[in-house]
Each structure stands twice: as C-alpha cells, then as structure tokens.
Amino acid sequence: MKRAVLLDLYGTLVEPDWGALTAGRDAIADRVGVPRAAAHAAWAATHQARMRGQHGSLEGDLAAVFAAASDGGSDLVTDELLEELAALERANWRRGVHLYPDVVPMLGQLRRADARLAIVTNASAEAAAVIPALELGGLVDAVIASCDAGVVKPDLLVLAMHELGVTSAEAVLVDDEPAQVEAARRIGVDAILVRRVAAGRSASGAGRGAAVRDLAGVAELVFGALPTPPG
Predict the structure, then answer these.
(1) Model pLDDT, residue 76
(2) Which of 40, 73, 115, 216 pairs with 199 at a CA distance of 20 to 30 A?
C-alpha cells in the first residue's frame, strides 16, 4: 500500500524560464566584469559541486563560479559584492521560475488521500530557494534538497523516505526525468514519469511504465478513487 509521494521540483512542479535565468546571470557577469562566455562555462563547470552544497552557501557558490571564470583569480569579488550578487541571483530565480497551475490542486488531492509528501530535488542553493519563495514548503511534509543534504538522487530518495517514515514499497516518485525514474525503480521505489509535452496519458497504475502528461491524474494513479472535495 502506498503511503508517500516523493515529488521532483523542476519540470514537475515548477517551470524555469531559461532565457530569463540566463539573462539574469549575464547581468551578474557584467556586474563582476567577467566575459559572459567565461561565466557560462564556469556555471557549467561548478554545477555538480554547487548541487551538492560543497561551497556552503550561495555566496560560496558565486565565489567558486567567478574564480573559475577568471582562471582562479580571487580579487574580482569582495564579501560585500558577493552578498549583492547573491541577492541578485535569488531575485533572478524568483522571477524566472513559475509554478505549474496543476500543482496546488494535485497536492490537495494527495492530502485528502492522507499521503505523506516530500519535495526531493537535485538543486543548487539558488534553485532550491524558489521553494520558500513559492510557498511550497507549507504544502508538503518535507523538503529534501541536494545542496543541503550533500547527495543527489537516488540517495536523496532514501533520505526523504526516512524523513517521512515510510519504506521503498510504500513510496512513489513523480519525476520528469526518465533516468531518475529508472534509478528510483532500481532501489525499489515505484515511479511515475511526467511528460508535460506528451499528447496522452497512461492509466496503467503507479508501477513500472506509468506516465502522465500533467499532474491531474497522479493521485488517482497512486491511490485509485479519491474522496470528493467538500462543498
């Protein structure tokens, strides 16, 4: 019997506007005086470390990015400038990431089915910061972000299940990345693949092969018939 739903963030619950996010980061590179191409390469080169929180904070991430962009030079950014850049980057992500309209209704359905809920995301500090900005934390029981935990999926799923007090047989992952769905299944967690661009939806259940094009049918896939909302 399923008791918990583990929810990916990007591409599942929220949509990033990569054009806007890139423009915001270009403005930050301009503020530091680093060529945009070098900054782009440095964001990419530091991605894995930033997702695991290895620099300790968003300010630490930004210091690592601009050290990489300037061949290790450390005189480009002061602590004061790092604070300014971190504020710009947080604001950039608040503007550039939007909640899909089906998310809040789906979470309500899952709540009525007495599901335990966790957001489980591979995310750097600025990407994870959209969770409180969008007030998602109050809609779930736990938020497990890789930048805080120091590990990525599927290890994050194990942490989330421990936090929720459920076993792998009692949990379902909802994720838009096929590789993450397969990784979850390898550790015994059933998974539903979100294909938001796909034309149709399977009703094959929460086990292997389940896929949806939006989140409207997730609760039914996991729990079957649901209580009718009051009123």
Answers:
(1) 64
(2) 115
